[in-house]
Amino acid sequence: GFLGPNGAGKTTTIRILLGLLHADGGTAKIGGHDCWTDHANAARQFGSTLEQPALYGFLSGRDNLRQFARILGRVDEAHISELLDLVGMTERADDKVKRYSMGMRQRVALAQGMLGKPRLLILDEPTNGLDPNGIHGLRVLLRKLATEQGMTIFFSSHLLSEVEELCDRVVVLHRGEVKAAGPLDELLTTKGFKYRIDVSDVDQALEILRTIDGVTAEPGTIKDSITVTSPTDQARIINHALVTAGVGVDQLVHTQKGLEDVYMQLTGATPGSTLSSPPPPPPPQPTTAARS
What we know:
By secondary structure, the chain is α/β, with parallel strands linked by helices. The chain has 11 helices and 12 strands. Helices cover 36% and strands 20% of the residues.
């Protein structure tokens, strides 16, 4: 899963991996092949779909796959039928693409990306434009490709819940910089602690806890509760501070941090803010010496 606010550089990174852009610095390799200087060999390792599927509306789904197979150099009708069945498009394969829903187009685009039998599938915002049923269908399909076909899937998304449910590894990008990368379960357990505390006075509890170094406290979703996060386990310190101040603590429960909590922490976003990177500060303006 490849995460980051709008403008963080996700699509730019993907275009570099696909050999569509030349990076200003560093190298990008797939399967040991440089994506720019050895693009032909790198391209044999992956299939891809960009945010908007590039399909011919006047052709059927099957004919679209035939056309792209010709570009790759070989039309294998059996393989095309196998891919259409894999993505659940056999019954509509001979209908024109212009009659497809966005979810159907995404499925054909995935089949297109697998024409060359790649080891890696790169997807840029594959859930964009899909309704809940389409998102669910895509989720089931991607899981099937990973588990049954043994395919590695690299995809960018702004839907944290989808990434948390589907991915076993995550990269978080912010303003062009990798903030975290690794197994999802490790990311969720190494980025601090989260508690739900039921108290007698929410306002007083928030005021007290916000004075403790490293602690973030917000009103909880349940009445008379607060949600607290901390980079270290400070349950005893938190409980002692509240009780000493006369705030009744009915319950203090350690809860699992979700990907949203980790994402907000890494990108510096706050609840309710938009998932966009702030623009970089303007360059300093030259000064002109005043004449006397």
